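lol ok so funny story. i was supposed to be doing the assay writeup but got distracted and ended up predicting the structure for this chain instead. priorities right. anyway since i did it might as well share w the group, maybe its usefull for someone
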Amino acid sequence: MRLIEPLGLLEGEAAEEAVAHGLALPLLGGPLAFTLARLIDAEATRLVRADDIPARFAPERARLIAKTPPWAGLPTDRPAVMGILNITPDSFSDGGQHCDPASAIAAGLAMAEAGAAIIDIGGESTRPGADRVTPEDEQRRVLPVIRALAARGVLISVDTRHAATMAAALDAGAAIINDVSGLAFDPAARALVAARGCPVVLMHMRGTPATMKSHATYGDVAREVVAELGERLAEAEAAGIARAMIALDPGFGFAKEGAQNLTLMRRLTLFANFGCPLLIGVSRKRLVGLASGEVAANRRAPGSIAAGLYALGHGAFIIRAHDVAETVQAVRVWRSLSGSEKMA
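and the output, tada:
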C-alpha cells in the first residue's frame, strides 16, 4: 500500500502563509498544512519536502490536499464534539448511569446544550470481554431515547453492529451509523447503509469485543491499521456507499494494547490518505491512563481532553467525549490559539 505521512505540521496563519508561498501543502484543505512528507511504499520509506512528492504518489497527494466536503451536514474545516450516551449497565466508565430513558434523554439534551454537535447513542457495551446484547434488547434501550432527542432536533448517531438496530434507529430519527466493526459484523449492514444513503463511521477492530485482545499483535501498528481500515472502506464503497458519506475511526483500544495506542495516535496523519473525515475516540480510555498514570477511568477527563486536542492538531475532525462541556470549552480555546478561529 502506498502512503504519504504528512509531517512538519503548521496551523492558522502560519499554515496559510506557507501554502501561499509554496512552502507547504494544505492537509485536507486546511486549516492545517504540512511541510514534510514521509513516503511509504513497498520499495522504501524516505523523507522529502512536501513540494518534492514524486509523480508516482500523485493520487495520494491529491486526496491529502483536497478539501473534505461537509459530513452529516457538518463543515469539516472546524472540529466537532460527539457526546457519548451509553444506555448500558456495563460500559467501562459510565455503565448503569443512563439506563432509565428519562435520565438518558436529560443527559442527551444537556450534552447538546453544552455544544455537542452529535450525540452517539449505544445500547451494547463493546468494552473488552463485554457480553453480547441481542438486537431486540439493544433497540429496547435506545429507540425511546433516539425518538425523544430527534424530536428536539438533536443530530444523533447510533452506535451498533446490528443491521436491524441500524434500520430501527434510522426510522426513529437517527441520522448516522457508527459501527465498531466497520460494517463487517452483520452481513446485512453494508447493504442497509447503502440503501439508506446515511453517513457512517467505519472503525478499525480485529475480532469482536470478546476476542479482540487476542488479536493485538502488529509489526507496524500504524501501517497495518491504516491498511485494514482501508479494506473496510473499499468494501463499503463496493457495496454502494459513497466515500463522501464515510468517516473513519482508528479504533483506539480495540485490538490494540498499551503503547500500540500511543504509537497510533502519534501517526494520525497517515489516515488523511483516504480523504475521509477522521473521528477519534479516546475518552477515558487506557491510552489516557497509560500516559497519565490515572487508574480510575472517571478521573481521566483532563488527559482525554489533552489527547483530543493533540488529535485535532493532527487532522482529526470529530472528538468523541464523555465530558462534553469541558471538551467543547477546550476545543474553543484551541481553535482561538491555533488561529483556526479568530478571537472576537
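The radius of gyration is 19 Å. The CA atoms of residues 283 and 304 lie 5 Å apart.
back to the writeup now i swear
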